[in-house]
Amino acid sequence: MAQLDVSAIDLYYGAAQALRGVSVTSELGKVTAVLGRNGVGKTSLLRAITGQQPVSSGDIKFGGMSINALPSFERARLGIGFVPQGREIFPLLTVRENLETGFAALPRGQRTVPDLVFDLFPVLADMESRRGGDLSGGQQQQLAIGRALVMRPKLLILDEPTEGIQPSVIKDIGRAIAFLRDRGDMAILLVEQYFDFARELCDSYAVMDRGQVVLSGGKADMKPEEVRKLLAV
């Protein structure tokens, strides 16, 4: 059974339809890549999954349970961790304080920063007392992922994690995603425009265009030239 099962959802902003019958699944121990150009509905899909925008039809199930009616904070408590585009760390808080904002979704007995965060991103341990705003873009991205991992998510959603990041840090983030996937206790939904990064990590993929999924399948069935054509501006 899929950890996340998005089934034929429609989403509107006023009279404008942003999603049209979109279906996506994400399974434990696997990475599902959602690909597409800017403005095709990827962010709207994530807003629907995380509860930031209601769907008008269709269903979103997490762990087999419909979550359509749940607010964002309840979805976070269930184990949906979200790393937003642009990172959205708190620039005036220290690295440690930024990580501890992930405690909000946890019961009191679990409010610790797991060693996994510093094992994956040692730079965060080195800079624990620095303010988030003093970190480079790549370090802030690692901090944003670490903050989501503090929540012990069963589903980790990453929105454009390579955007504006130097190549060396992209490799570090890729290794971290591969490690988390291979542990087998987390489903990963990766939204990307960087095709090579997504193809290397994914087990399945969905390409969006004009609010719809226009191409999807397993990695073994992917035809790179078809996908690249849909990603071309």
Protein architecture, described:
The structure is a single chain. The protein has 233 residues and is an alpha/beta fold. It has one domain: Rossmann fold (3-Layer(aba) Sandwich). The protein is 34% helix and 27% strand. The protein has nine helices and ten strands. The strands form two sheets. Strands 6-7-8-3-9-10 form a six-stranded mixed sheet, with helices on both faces. A hairpin with a 2-residue loop joins strand 4 (57-62) and strand 5 (65-66). The longest helix is centred in the C-terminal third of the chain and has 17 residues, at 167-183.
List descriptors:
Rossmann fold; six-stranded mixed β-sheet; alpha/beta; 10 strands; globular; 9 helices; 233 residues; four-stranded antiparallel β-sheet
Question: CATH topology, which one?
Answer: Rossmann fold
Strand content: 25-35%
**What does the radius of gyration come to?**
17 Å
Total count of domains: 1
Termini separation comes to 36 Å
Please, how many helices? 9
Question: How confident overall, as mean pLDDT?
Answer: 95
**CATH top level class name:** Alpha Beta
The overall strand count is 10
Q: CATH homologous superfamily, by name? A: P-loop containing nucleotide triphosphate hydrolases
Helix content, binned percent: 25-40%
- The CATH architecture name reads 3-Layer(aba) Sandwich
For the largest sheet, list the strands in their spatial order. Answer: 6-7-8-3-9-10
